[in-house]
């Protein structure tokens, strides 16, 4: 399998973003967020992130048509840049999902592989050989796009990416969503989404929150910031009071810190885990008092 340079990998991510925003209907629905919103747009990042994350303000009216359109857009964009898309798949997640949960939860997972044009032409009739020679995107050959539906997207920012207008989460929106994601892993949130397994650890979110809040000088005690936080929590039915339980899960997230250490960007000085965890505790302390 071929492994792209870091520069080419970044360009591949940019091409994927451009593909999705090149359609007028999708452009008005999708908002880039997460680690690649930080890295590709805000130019603030501590670690490598391969997959792309998007929010959707509502839901797609015609899922099969959107899946067909996404495959077409990705194929056209990458073909114009010397690559071919194959093994495309888009599916709803989670599956199965109850009608109650489907009204506010879930989304879509998009997967595909890439082959450079010459390799694709040589092995076009041999799918297994194409898979063996696919472009390595990070540690695997599958590129993933996560689309989360029924999200709060008010406050999104318009920006330009290589001449194309795209929408992206603001740094404050990213911080609020990461705080929510931390709370969504807690046992008390499980029953709300009918989850009977433990939540996951998210050490990377503590690092990202620290980085964004300090670099962008974010003030979560500002009234507009608190309104945004409330809306983001409410839309996924996450109680704000869960912010007060973060301290209880220090060891859970600490155990995940090696995964951050293994993906940290060259030149970024990573502090110890407690530096980031304690920063987040201090950041939300005034908010937990108001949530009580």
Outline:
With 292 residues, the chain is α+β, with helices and mostly antiparallel strands. It has helices spanning 6-21, 24-27, 34-42, 63-79, 99-102, 117-123, 127-132, 171-184, 203-215, 223-235, 250-254, 257-261, 273-291; strands spanning 30-33, 52-56, 83-93, 107-116, 143-148, 157-161, 164-168.
Essential attributes:
13 helices, 2 domains, single chain, alpha+beta, 5-stranded mixed β-sheet, 292 residues
Report what the structure shows:
With 292 residues, this protein is of the alpha+beta class. The chain has two domains: 6-168; 171-291, no CATH class. It is built from 13 helices and seven strands. The chain has helices at residues 6-21, 24-27, 34-42, 63-79, 99-102, 117-123, 127-132, 171-184, 203-215, 223-235, 250-254, 257-261, 273-291; strands at residues 30-33, 52-56, 83-93, 107-116, 143-148, 157-161, 164-168. The strands form two sheets. A five-stranded mixed sheet has the order 1-2-5-4-3. It has a two-stranded antiparallel sheet with strand order 6-7. β6 (157-161) and β7 (164-168) form a beta hairpin. α9 packs across α13 (273-291). It is globular and about 60 Å long. The chain starts with 5 loop residues before the first helix and ends with a helix.
């Amino acid at each position: 399998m071929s492994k792209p340079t870091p520069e080419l990998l970044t360009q591949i991510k940019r091409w994927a973003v451009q593909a999705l925003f090149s359609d007028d209907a999708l452009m008005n629905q999708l908002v880039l967020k997460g680690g690649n919103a930080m890295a590709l747009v805000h130019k603030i990042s501590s670690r490598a992130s391969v997959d792309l994350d998007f929010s959707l303000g509502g839901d797609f009216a015609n899922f099969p048509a959107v899946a067909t359109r996404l495959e077409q857009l990705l194929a056209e964009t990458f073909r114009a840049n010397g690559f071919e898309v194959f093994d495309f798949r888009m599916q709803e997640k989670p599956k199965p999902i109850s009608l109650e949960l489907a009204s506010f939860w879930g989304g879509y997972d998009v997967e595909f592989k890439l082959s450079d044009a010459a390799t694709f032409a040589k092995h076009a009739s041999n799918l297994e050989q194409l898979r063996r020679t696919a472009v390595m995107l990070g540690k695997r050959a599958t590129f993933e796009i996560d689309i989360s539906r029924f999200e709060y997207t008010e406050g999104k920012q318009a920006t330009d990416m290589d001449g194309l207008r795209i929408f992206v989460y603001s740094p404050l929106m990213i911080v609020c969503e990461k705080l929510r994601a931390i709370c969504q892993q807690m046992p008390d949130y499980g029953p709300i989404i009918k989850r009977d397994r433990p939540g996951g650890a998210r050490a990377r979110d503590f690092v990202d929150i620290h980085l964004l809040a300090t670099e962008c000088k974010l003030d979560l005690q500002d009234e507009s910031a608190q309104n945004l936080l409330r809306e983001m929590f409410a839309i996924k039915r996450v109680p704000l009071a869960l912010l007060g339980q973060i301290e209880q899960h220090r060891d859970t997230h600490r155990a995940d810190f090696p995964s951050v250490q293994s993906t940290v960007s060259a030149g970024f000085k990573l502090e110890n885990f407690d530096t980031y965890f304690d920063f987040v505790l201090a950041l939300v302390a005034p908010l937990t008092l108001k949530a009580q």
